[in-house]
């Protein structure tokens, strides 16, 4: 896990220098405190900060350049199957001088070209300079676990692992993208497309590779190149296999999928334990992190896989999952750390938390993760496995329930739909009347295609962005784009590719890297993803349980007090208590009248009235719009408004 910066001039005759990337690289020292390196070749300059995890020696230094000088690479992330790939490449005649996955990437590109990305099982963002072809290759992993930002200025492209590094360039735009601001403040959408909160700075798309090639001539101008998609979720579902499962009355096909899912997930855990530094897990009382922790204890040590001896938890008195957590701790024998989550801890880290995020957080829930990674860093545990992605793969959220019920009917008939409705009603996740209304709406959309049931993402009852600002937007915001009623498959694919998973991955990256630690996510192993998505609706939810496939796969591995525990807490934190207590002073400072008026885009009087009502107890217990406003303004004050 590391951080990098790249500058590529669009004019091939220009010579880039270390000074072109030095300042931006210095902004990423938290991502890589162990080493730094630079590479300059013609119009290209690369800067790198290293967090040593594989091959702790100087042999892992980056930028890594091949002995013949043909290729140079900066790489952030891990290729977990690098040992298997290295064996294959050795058999093809390649020699290796390090124990790193970085060197394997270079050899794989030399052997297979752009097709190498399809062979990688891992998380990555990278820049690879091809000296012979004189172009720069950018690539990002299938699901966008690792970040990559790109800005095209008049005469150069800028690449970086964090937005704040791009903004350190004097020529980079700091103008706010107001459509992105509206999407976020009014609707809670962020990270759902390539746009950032700053005009002209984009996220490089997940599952893509792109070539940036300078041209000769003073008139050359940096522009956005075509990118190649090497992975797409549209091919992740094996529809033939799903049909066989649904057509098999014996249940053998279903049982086979359960076994394959379990084997793939356990192997994904083992691959993500490959490390030359200590490994731990994030542990809540839920089935995802509990199952991962139990899987680490079940995996034999081999091929540089560390044992996992540590687990870290965020505990709050309002949300007690101690019984489930202790069951996993006793079952595995891990050392358990639960850092203080009291008011003093929150007050101590409030400013540093918001400083660590160069794009706004959507709520205060990421605070829990921030404190967990901080605790791991104190214990010198550098790698943590976590359960991100499971809910989006296996319909873990209550928002999927109506789509699941309708899809059960589409797949298996009216009786199956009735059973699904009854089981969800008994589970009590949603009120019966609400559940009935939502299910009827979804069913009508599926059975009466002529009925216009496209729905729009609703804003709050009142927008706090001035009407004149909204009317002047250069492109439509999300409330102007219809979101069609979808199948469960479409809902899950959208969750993975657009919202909410991309946001959660960005938060995980910043929380972990703020403390120079690495988060690894077994559920986003491509084999696990494709098996989970292939499962029919009735294997994603059943009998009132979410993530049914996962719960069956963990049978005998995860204690039943966790495996069969129904309530889903997600990542709860006491928003109201914090905002009226340890965060009150920060909250009032960020949302002060002078600050809000200086931004020039808000309905300030409306915001102040809502703010004061919440703090006095006469308004909402927690006002999500005010939380988002605070998060944006804190981020803008630290990163966007600075010159």
Structure in words:
This protein starts with a strand and ends with a helix. The model is unreliable at 451-460 (pLDDT under 50). It has 27 helices and 19 strands. It is of the alpha+beta class. Strands 2-3-1-9-8-10 form a six-stranded antiparallel β-sheet. Strands 4-5-6-7-11-12 form a six-stranded antiparallel β-sheet, with helices on one face. Strand 18 (541-542) and strand 19 form a beta hairpin. It folds into three domains: 2-176 and 194-231, 4-Layer Sandwich (Glutamine Phosphoribosylpyrophosphate, subunit 1, domain 1), CATH 3.60.20; 235-393 and 499-563, 3-Layer(aba) Sandwich (Rossmann fold); 575-640, no CATH class. 42% of the residues lie in helices and 14% in strands. The longest helix has 20 residues, at 252-271. Helix 5 (178-187) runs antiparallel to helix 27, helix 7 (252-271) runs antiparallel to helix 19 and helix 13 (401-412) runs antiparallel to helix 14.
Instruction: List low-pLDDT spans.
Output: 451-460
Shape category: globular
Rg: 25 Å
- Estimate nothing, just give the exact number of structural domains: 3
CATH homologous superfamily (4th level) name of the largest domain: HUPs
Number of helical elements: 27
CATH architecture of the largest domain: 3-Layer(aba) Sandwich
Binned, the helix content reads 40-55%
Largest sheet: 6 strands, antiparallel
User: Which strands sit side by side, in order, in the main sheet?
Assistant: 2-3-1-9-8-10
Mean pLDDT: 92
Q: Give the N-to-C terminal Cα separation.
A: 29 Å
What class would the helix/strand composition place it in? alpha+beta
* CATH top level assignment of the largest domain: Alpha Beta
Report the count of strand segments. 19
Sheet-strand content, in percent, reads 5-15%
In the CATH hierarchy, the third-tier topology of the largest domain is known as Rossmann fold
